[in-house]
Specification:
Order of helices and strands: HHHHHH
Number of helices: 6
Number of strands: 0
Largest sheet: none
Shape: flat
């Protein structure tokens, strides 16, 4: 159990360190982050739609696609939660059988339930983020067709960026569930999976040149 707690603490510290570095780099060079570029692109899109007065169909189709994508991901999170609940006991048995072969640190049986709970919590948080993304996308659908003014445009941009941020958080929570799954097979796999995930995120978060 001690090894698992140490590995979990190291994994969380690695992720926090990466996001601290990403935030610091984005402040220093804003265009280096794909998130900053996406936010700027969404703002320009809102300004173009609201000021042109002839793009209502494009706006509705784009927002509809965003809502459908977020709805699909929210449904996926729900199905994953149901799957973990139904297969939780079997997952624990499979991991318990493989664990002595893959790990040098013994793990008490009670810890498997904690790991399942953390995995379920990860999917539940992802569902929450996708649901909030749908909520803000729907708000934007009403706001973007109103007569434009400076305050309304800023508010619409803020809502759309909020929706985009929630969607990104949901996807990231899905990504973070991968190290948790590998954690069932040993504490070392949790650390290795976290390092691999951070390496992948460092590529995804860098704005293309």
């Amino acid at each position: 159990m001690f090894c698992d707690l140490i590995a979990f603490s190291i994994s969380c510290l690695l992720i926090l360190t990466y996001y601290f570095y990403l935030k610091k780099r984005t402040r220093r060079v804003p265009n280096s982050s794909v998130h900053a570029v996406n936010a700027m692109t969404r703002e320009r899109w809102v300004m173009m739609i609201m000021n042109s007065g002839k793009q209502e169909i494009l706006a509705i189709q784009t927002l509809r696609n965003s809502v459908m994508t977020a709805s699909f991901m929210a449904t996926t999170a729900t199905l994953l939660m149901i799957g973990v609940l139904n297969l939780g006991e079997k997952i624990g048995q499979w991991s318990q059988n493989l664990h002595p072969l893959l790990s040098i640190c013994p793990t008490p049986n009670e810890l498997w339930q904690v790991k399942l709970g953390i995995l379920l919590l990860s999917f539940a948080i992802a569902f929450y983020y996708f649901a909030m993304a749908i909520r803000f996308f729907n708000h934007v659908g009403y706001m973007i067709n109103l007569p434009p003014d400076d305050e309304l445009c800023k508010q619409t941009c803020a809502y759309l960026n909020k929706a985009g941020s929630y969607y990104t958080f949901g996807i990231r929570t899905f990504f973070f569930s991968l190290p948790i799954v590998l954690w069932f097979f040993g504490s070392l796999f949790l650390i290795l999976a976290t390092l691999s995930l951070i390496a992948g995120l460092s590529v995804l978060d860098r704005a293309p040149n």
